[in-house]
Amino acid sequence: MLKPLATATRELVNLDGLWLFGLDGTLGPEPWKSRLETRLEAAVPASYNDLFAEQKIRDHVGLVWYQRTVRVPRGWSDQRIVLRFDAATHAAAVYVDDTLVAEHVGGYTPFEADLTGLIAPGTEFRLTVAVDNRLTNITIPPGKLTVGADGQERQTYFHDFYNYAGLARSVWLYSTPRSHLTDITVTTDVVDGGTGLVSYRLATSEPAPASMRLIDETGNTVATGEGHSGTLRVEDAVLWRPGAAYLYRLEVEIHDGWHVVDAYELPVGIRTVAVQGEQFLINGEPFYFTGFGKHEDTAIRGKGHDNAYLVHDFRLLDWTGANSFRTSHYPYAEEVIEFADRHGIVVIDETAAVGLNLAVEAGLTGQPPRPTFSPETINDQTQAAHAQHLRELIDRDKNHPSVVMWCVANEPSSNEDGAREYFEPLIKLTRELDPTRPVTTTAVIFATSENDRLADLVDVVSLNRYYGWYVATGDLETAEKLLEADLRGWAAKHGKPIMMSEYGADTIAGLHSVLDTPWTEEFQAGFLAMNHRVFDRIPSFVGEHVWNFADFGTGPAIHRVDGNKKGIFTRDRRPKTAAFALRERWTGLHGRKPGSITAQNGQHQTTAPDFTQEPALSTPAGAQRS
């Protein structure tokens, strides 16, 4: 699925703005069949939860309805007309006038509806969208629904961030020619001391000749090609590098004789990614991750995409010396990944598979733990939904040079029975969909080097560890010993690159103490310094992602006061003391450790994808799934 783009053959109309809005049950039995009976309006893109002053809207469980009128440009005669949603959290049904045109499950990836023949250029139509925020044991992320004494549904979810919902990303109406490009897949390699190889595969709605040009940043054509698949060769290629992005432009056309039928362009960064021994390599050079786990989270907007915050957050990443981040715990808006492409920030791209660990549920709710993997909890249907999330994520982000690794899940219960049977087919599927990037999952603190069942399946061991906070709280001397023993255990057993995908301590901005007192700014800085001393003693260590970039909203649990406070910045992006300490460390590291933004040219032969094979989800022979 190609992102909507205005080209010589395509046009698009942005449908963001204020939409009519209402809760299900307050709008009549079939709300899509007429103008919504409501005086409420909601902003798009934005989560709806914090837009209003009514508790019943924020706490609503189930469907909400959005509606607006759309005028189709009159010049779109003889064109294919498509409606696209960049995301709808967590499921959606879309109606054009009285007709259901699309349904989608999964809150962070795009979906479309072809409206050709249903609407006429120059006319208006009524666009109505039902968005469902409910999570169950067979959704990604999972959750649990119960019914209260008042007969209303109650939602429990197993992750520590607020369940923001709605139309948090843009909505588009766009046109293409009837005969058109449907997909482009690009992979890159570097050979012979600096020659770039750009391999491509095109998909079209019907057979048609195709041609392409690769253009550098000065506007010069550096390579041309014909056909639906092939490889372009770029002599003395300028590589895409962390901190020094360089993007070529691939211009693709399909033809009908001498006539251009459809045209599309795609930014291309030539670079290689690989894991070799205990090193993570970008362009054949060792890379050391510095950065954060982040969230799409701001006041009022919730998870609504905001370009002002996008720019500001990336400037703060640069200020701290960060070279990377993980899209915890779901795919971010594609504009974020595109910005990373243009500015040389490295991305670990993660699915929405957070909460596949019912031990965490027990800790959050105080209930007895349930088995994570069972027919009644995380099961075959969950796995199928998870596989679909992986397909949609990789389909959307496969061409972005900033994305260097796929994260299949955050903190799954990898120490429990059933974990390997659940995850091994998903990790295999990820590699089949994209054999060019390494794969990881992040390990929860309950999963040790002795009881974990997944680390041998992944390329990088990513650990979430909170020694000194959740374990040995406030005792940094003991925490340092526990952390080092833990990391050395993983290093000795697996011989793979290890990175800290989460480490952090809740901190109230403005709270100070001369003692090692949790929640103070001084403790947060000391906590991070303790972790860094240990990281620097582990030879196979390849990166550190602090949890979290900024404070973020959470659910109503009593152990959170106004959200999670592990941010290095406050929710409105004011720095805490630890931000300055991180800046000093990371700007210094980039002169000493792998991953410097000034790294020199390197080579590495990547594995070329086999475009003739269709990925499939399968359970290994003999495996029993619980």
Automatic annotation (TrEMBL):
Q: Which organism is it from?
A: Arthrobacter bambusae
Q: List residues of the Glycoside hydrolase family 2 catalytic domain.
A: 273-589
Entry similarity comment: Belongs to the glycosyl hydrolase 2 family.
Question: Polar residues: which segments have biased composition?
Answer: 597-610
Q: Does the keyword Hydrolase apply?
A: yes
Write the record's keywords in alphabetical order, separated by commas: Glycosidase, Hydrolase
Domain of life, per lineage = Bacteria
Q: Pfam families under this entry?
A: Glyco_hydro_2, Glyco_hydro_2_C, Glyco_hydro_2_N
Instruction: Identify the stretch annotated as signal peptide in this record.
Output: none
The protein in question is named: Beta-glucuronidase
